UniProtKB/TrEMBL annotation:
Residues 11-125 form the Response regulatory domain. The modification 4-aspartylphosphate is found at residue 59. This is Sigma-54-dependent Fis family transcriptional regulator. The keyword Ribonucleoprotein does not apply. InterPro entries: AAA+_ATPase (IPR003593), AAA_lid_NorR (IPR058031), CheY-like_superfamily (IPR011006), Homeodomain-like_sf (IPR009057), HTH_Fis (IPR002197), P-loop_NTPase (IPR027417), Sig_transdc_resp-reg_receiver (IPR001789), Sigma_54_int (IPR002078).
Length: 490
């Protein structure tokens, strides 16, 4: 029987059917957290009923109910608990689906590193503390005294500074400059905006910057990923529900449109919604009111809608998968965020910013890249964009024993400059290598030279004699170029 947790320690629930794994996690975490242990989902449910859990650390492979299935249930019953999945299979379909459906904060790859695991759980607990603080602040602000109004003003000033357009990391002359300039102009007007761009390009960050530059900045900014949950749950999440509307609806639940009243709602991946749900969303946007599930009384709402999608919505309209009338409602103005492979000049400053953030997360603020990292980052097409770049940097930093992070610690696909696509795919890659589409002439030529050298060396199985002959170089000249671009190591 676990003792009641000390008041000052966040509670972490470790769910794993292997006793040795639970013990290892306990030894890693118990100095900073109060640890509860469960060997299966049923035992975990009982603990969650009795304790206020901050973080759930759950193994994927368990008898009976899998980790993702349990975390899906936990999201509905205990939404404030931050959910982390532990697995040895990064490409598992269950894991990929569960990241969205179960609202998983992060997954930890086996075998895990103690310091990295501690940093991950620490960040998750801080996220939960911040969420609760924001909820309490929202309640306080609604009954604001002069002191609270002053605090609100100060918090708004800090938020505007953090989410300023100038804080969106990019290089001078970046293709993103024009997008940010247009977004900043549009921010002052109450127009619906549709943000187009691939997953991981920073569409939500752009939407936040627009909100905090708008007259609605003092009101809430709320977000929902429309692809993350089923239509029935999405309707309840956005429009709210009344007590008893369905099984499990124990209390009235205000939807995100009501919570965003006076502010902005960001609907990510709106292109993934079904035609049936699109009809309901269209009515809300036309009438300016929501009808909670199970209620006959509409509730007026005043929100600005910023939507985003990675799909070509005009093509979806022509194909009959997206309603034309809804398209014109959400696409008052359209902004397109270019993918990272078309912003080669932005990779270096973004990578430096991400390394700084990862250093803070891992408690290693002196982290810096080795000289051989830049050509490697420029030579990969980054199909997952900034999100993929962040994951690669976090992985390399966690694996590095020194403060200098070398290129060899990045994954093989990044080192080889390949993303598993062919030139025939039309994505601007030749033999899986990204071709630069922007940047200065010198930057583009240098990146292309590095990619050509890598392609030749890989194709000739690192035979320098044959490579030098094909490229018309001496072995000394070839070696100098390989050293220059950080390609000397296979």
């Amino acid at each position: 029987m676990n003792l009641p947790p000390p008041d000052l320690l966040p509670v972490v629930l470790v769910v794993d059917d292997e006793a040795r794994s639970r013990e290892a996690m306990r030894r890693t975490l118990d100095e900073e957290f109060h640890i509860l242990e469960a060997s299966q989902a049923e035992e975990a449910r009982a603990l969650m009923e009795r304790h206020e859990v901050a973080v759930i650390l759950c193994d994927q492979r368990m008898p009976g109910v899998s980790g993702v299935e349990f975390l899906k249930e936990a999201r509905q019953r205990w939404p404030e608990a931050v959910r982390i999945i532990v697995s040895g299979y990064t490409d598992s379909e269950d894991i990929i689906t569960g990241l969205n459906e179960a609202g998983i904060h992060q997954y930890v790859l086996k075998p895990w590193v103690p310091d990295a695991l501690l940093a991950t759980v620490r960040a998750a607990a801080e996220t939960r503390t911040l969420q609760r603080s924001l909820q309490r602040l929202d309640v306080d602000l609604r009954t604001a005294t002069p002191v609270l109004r002053q605090r609100r003003s100060e918090a708004l000033a800090r938020a505007r500074a953090v989410f300023d357009f100038e804080r969106i990391e990019r290089a001078p002359g970046s293709p993103l400059d024009g997008v940010c300039a247009m977004a900043e102009r549009l921010a002052r007007y109450d127009l619906p905006v549709l943000v187009l761009g691939e997953s991981g390009t920073g569409k939500e960050l752009l939407a936040r910057a627009m909100h905090y530059a708008s007259p609605r900045a003092a009101q809430p900014f709320v977000t929902e990923n429309c692809a993350a949950i089923a239509d029935t749950l999405l309707e309840s999440e956005l429009f709210g529900h009344k007590r008893g509307a369905f099984t499990g609806a124990y209390d009235d639940h205000p939807g995100l449109f009501q919570r965003a009243h006076g502010g902005t709602i960001f609907l990510d991946e709106i292109g993934e919604t079904s035609p049936a749900f699109q009809v309901k969303l269209l009515r809300v946007l036309q009438e300016g009111e929501v009808r909670p599930v199970g209620s006959a009384t509409p509730v007026p709402v005043d929100v600005r809608v910023i939507a985003a999608t990675h799909r070509d919505l005009e093509a979806e309209v022509r194909a009959g998968r997206f309603r034309q009338d809804l398209y014109y409602r959400v696409a008052g103005v359209t902004l397109s965020v270019p993918p990272l492979r078309e912003r080669l000049g932005d990779i270096a400053p973004i990578a430096q910013r991400l390394l700084h953030d990862v250093g803070l997360e891992l408690g290693r603020t002196a982290l810096r890249f080795a000289d051989d990292v830049a050509p490697v980052l420029l030579g990969y097409p980054w199909p997952g964009n900034i999100r993929e770049l962040r994951n690669e940097i976090r992985r390399a930093a966690a694996l590095s024993d020194e403060d200098i992070v070398p290129a060899r610690l990045f994954s093989l696909k990044v080192l080889h400059g390949q993303a598993g696509v062919s030139a025939a795919s039309g994505n601007g890659h030749a033999n899986g290598v990204a071709l630069p589409a922007s940047g200065t002439l010198a930057q583009r030529l240098e990146a292309m030279e590095a990619m050509l050298l890598r392609e030749v060396m890989l194709r000739l199985r690192w035979n320098k004699t044959h490579a030098a002959r094909e490229l018309g170089l001496s072995r000394v000249g070839l070696r100098a170029k390989l050293l220059r671009f950080g390609l000397e190591e296979k």
